Amino acid sequence: MTEGIENENKSQLLLNSGYMIPVIGFGTYGLTGDKCVNTVSLTINTGYRLVDTAPMYENETEVGSGIAQGLSVTGLHRDQLFITSKVSEDMSRKETVKSVIESLRKMELDYLDLVLIHEPYDSFKEMYAGLEECVSRNLVHSIGISNFNSEEYLELLKNCSIIPAVNQVECHIYHRNLKWKEILNQKGTLMQGYAPLTQGKKDIYNEPVLRSIAENHQRTVSQVALRSLTQPGTPVIVKSGGAGHMKENLESLNFNLHGEELEKIYLLDKEPSLFGWD
């Protein structure tokens, strides 16, 4: 199984469900109220096509309003966007289906492109069966998981009929999860990374290796950090407040790192999870 089949503009990857997922998506954790609405709209206007939310973020209604506003401003159609939400509590199969329907109601959408089980809850096998039902009812195009380790993932594979399209996990230059990614690739699941710039838990902007490579390419440190993940086939979820940073992140797809540069960056991969998932 390949790490993902890129389309012509290299901005999307093919999921095992047959749908394309953007390589760089926008995360909405921490955004609320009018700021959330306006930021999501700006995100779409800037060029992002993937928006990621969750019931746990308590902003699905605002995200939905931002999507509607962004579509109105840009003239895009719903099917040109990729909207991800999650199931964020331990619940039954029936409750899982209800949770997805509630997410759709809040965002005023007819379907979601991807729904993930937010973490390996005790009932994750029953919950995943609920997500499979959502696929059969055309409520969701692709389903997956988040923060699952190899043991939990392999246990799920024994008890599901649809192989997870995505496992969304922590992934950045200090914690690349490469062995885990290899297992997922072999089984047909794409690893998607969150916190690709470490969410401030590490000072990547003063990392000498990144600064040197960024200078050589006349790029920013964050662009180099992101490209070191996306170039080998790991899509990422980013978060940024202003249009300038949003555009900067997207433009990280417009150049390639050399093999020796990637090797230098890979040597930084020495840290355990910065978010406690190890």
What can you see in these coordinates?
- This protein is an alpha/beta fold and 278 residues long.
- 40% of the residues lie in helices and 16% in strands.
- It has ten helices and ten strands.
- It has an eight-stranded parallel beta barrel with strand order 3-4-5-6-7-8-9-10, surrounded by five helices. A two-stranded antiparallel sheet has the order 1-2.
- The chain is globular.
- 44% of the residues are buried.
Describe the SSE topology.
Elements: E1 12-14, E2 20-22, E3 24-27, H1 33-46, E4 50-52, H2 60-74, E5 82-87, H3 93-107, E6 112-117, H4 124-136, E7 140-146, H5 150-157, E8 166-170, H6 178-187, E9 190-194, H7 208-217, H8 221-230, E10 236-238, H9 243-250, H10 259-266
Parallel strand pairs: 3-4, 3-10, 4-5, 5-6, 6-7, 7-8, 8-9, 9-10
Antiparallel strand pairs: 1-2
Helix pairs in contact: 1-2, 2-3, 3-4, 7-8
Beta percentage is: 15-25%
Low-confidence regions: 1-9
**What is the number of helical segments per DSSP (H or I, 4+ residues)?**
10
Please give the largest β-sheet. 8 strands, parallel, barrel
End-to-end Cα distance: 26 Å
Evaluate the radius of gyration.
Answer: 18 Å
How would you summarize what this structure contains?
The chain has helices at residues 33-46, 60-74, 93-107, 124-136, 150-157, 178-187, 208-217, 221-230, 243-250, 259-266, and strands at 12-14, 20-22, 24-27, 50-52, 82-87, 112-117, 140-146, 166-170, 190-194, 236-238. The chain is an alpha/beta fold and 278 residues long.
